[in-house]
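Hi R.,

As promised on Friday, here is the backbone we talked about, encoded as structure tokens. Could you run it through your design pipeline when you get a chance and send me back a sequence?
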């Protein structure tokens, strides 16, 4: 009887996992502050368990830190995420979430212009 119950639980958990994760390979998913990503491009030389970061490079611009587990060539990453700046401008959103900044530039005459003072 115990074996039958364990087999049923294993089958049930497999079906539940399939329903939750089908069509979600390599997609950043979240529910509130919790995120998860399932990837199929893990390298065999990497660690089985490691800390990892994730960025969503499209609206709503989320960034997170978590734990990554590798099984064969598949990796599963989960952790906590935070919202980025809510903007429709793709350049501003990506720069903010990657914690980058717009650098200045030199014009034709060799004069440096700071990006913060750009109008």
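Update: got your reply. Pasting your designed sequence below so it's all in one thread:
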């Amino acid at each position: 009887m115990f074996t039958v119950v364990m087999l049923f639980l294993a089958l049930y958990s497999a079906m539940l996992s399939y329903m939750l994760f089908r069509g979600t390979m390599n997609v950043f998913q979240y529910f509130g502050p919790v995120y998860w990503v399932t990837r199929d491009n893990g390298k065999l030389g990497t660690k089985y368990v490691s800390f990892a970061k994730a960025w969503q490079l499209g609206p709503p611009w989320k960034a997170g830190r978590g734990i990554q587990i590798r099984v064969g060539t598949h990796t599963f990453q989960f952790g906590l995420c935070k919202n980025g700046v809510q903007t429709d401008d793709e350049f501003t959103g990506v720069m903010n979430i990657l914690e980058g900044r717009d650098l200045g530039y030199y014009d034709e005459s060799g004069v440096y212009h700071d990006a913060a003072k750009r109008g």
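One thing I noticed while checking it: Residues 2-21 form the longest helix (20 residues).

Thanks again,
M.
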